[in-house]
Amino acid sequence: MEKKAITIVLAKPRGFCAGVERAIAIVEQALEKYGAPVYVRHEIVHNRFVVEGLEKKGAIFVEELTDVPEEAPVIFSAHGVPKSVPQEAQRRDLFYLDATCPLVSKVHREAERHHRLGHQILLIGHAGHPEVVGTMGQLPPGTIILVEDTKGAETVQVEDPDRLAYITQTTLSVDDTAEVIAVLQRRFPNLKGPKKEDICYATTNRQEAVKFIAPNCDALMVVGAPNSSNSQRLVEVAKTAGCKKAMLVQRASDIDWDLFEGVERLGITAGASAPEILVNEVLTACKERFEVTVNEIDGRAENVTFKLPRVLTDAQAMA
């Protein structure tokens, strides 16, 4: 039977960002330096394939420090943690490594700066996301108010409109966040914002790439995890940009091939925590079913790298 011909449009950039690469490298180097097991509080990044790969190498993922034995190293995930977590690790004299993405740490420092200046802080983000929990946990309870959408922006009550600042989660939709900020600025003209926007370069670049290809695609697949904020936003961005048949898949085995009826141009991208091996897996699955022509679109070049903690690069082992 003759295969149906489809064109696959590969978005670029896609997949791993510098913060994710750094976080995974911290776990791998800690395993190499200190031996297994190394404990990791929360999923190091939101991708089961990555997590399971690290588990095979000796990483043990836990939700709380109470599950970490006294003698084992523990690593904090890329999403960041409340200040109470390293404080508890210090109290227990645990050896810990912080894999928080430096761009998330930047938001933490902004929150602290605004607090020192006496500003009430509005955090634009999604309730319950580990990054939001970590950011809100940088300051005393009640200091930061969460604003999730334009409706929340219209109704949020503040103590002093003239002493007000906002920060944002790093993995939000650029356009949705701009709408929320516009509402807040209309209500609070003296609202202070970040010196440089908080949504990270990788989130912005991947969304730009999807906006570019989505209008000319019959369907678009985002390779990523359902608990990955940046991956979910890519699906939303694709739909808003004109590709209504946009979907999130974790692995090639998750693809519903019935949805490809009438699809001649398929867009593919990957969230910032999804490795390229999973994109290749999806491509292989497509080639088994269709006569595929691949067209990779050039996008914004990325050359960002983040240094590893010095304790991992120094010759001396853990004290």
Task: Walk me through this protein's architecture.
There is one protein chain. The protein folds into three domains: 4-16 and 201-296, Cobalt-precorrin-4 Transmethylase, domain 1 (3-Layer(aba) Sandwich); 18-101, Rossmann fold (3-Layer(aba) Sandwich), CATH 3.40.50; 103-187, 4-hydroxy-3-methylbut-2-enyl diphosphate reductase, catalytic domain (Cobalt-precorrin-4 Transmethylase, domain 1), CATH 3.40.1010.20. The strands form three sheets. A five-stranded parallel sheet has the order 10-9-11-1-12, sandwiched between helices. Strands 3-2-4-5 form a four-stranded parallel sheet. A three-stranded parallel sheet has the order 7-6-8, with helices on both faces. The model has no long low-confidence stretch (mean pLDDT 96). The protein has 319 residues and is an alpha/beta fold. Helix 8 (201-213) packs parallel to helix 9 (229-240). The protein is built from eleven helices and twelve strands. The protein starts with a strand and ends in a 6-residue tail after the last helix. 38% of the residues lie in helices and 18% in strands.
Please tell me the CATH architecture of the largest domain by its name.
Answer: 3-Layer(aba) Sandwich
Number of helices in the DSSP assignment: 11
Low-confidence stretches: none
- Biggest sheet: strand arrangement: 10-9-11-1-12
Approximately what portion of the residues adopt beta-strand conformation? 15-25%
Q: Could you say what the CATH topology of the largest domain is called?
A: Cobalt-precorrin-4 Transmethylase, domain 1
Q: How many domains would you count in the coordinates? A: 3
E-strand count: 12
Mean pLDDT: 96
What is the global morphology? flat
Give me the CATH superfamily of the largest domain.
4-hydroxy-3-methylbut-2-enyl diphosphate reductase, catalytic domain
Helix content: 25-40%
| Biggest pleated-sheet summary | 5 strands, parallel
Computed CA radius of gyration, to the nearest angstrom? 21 Å
H/E element sequence: EHEHEEHEHEHEHEHHEHEEHEH
Structural class: alpha/beta
CATH C-level category of the largest domain? Alpha Beta
Distance between the termini: 65 Å
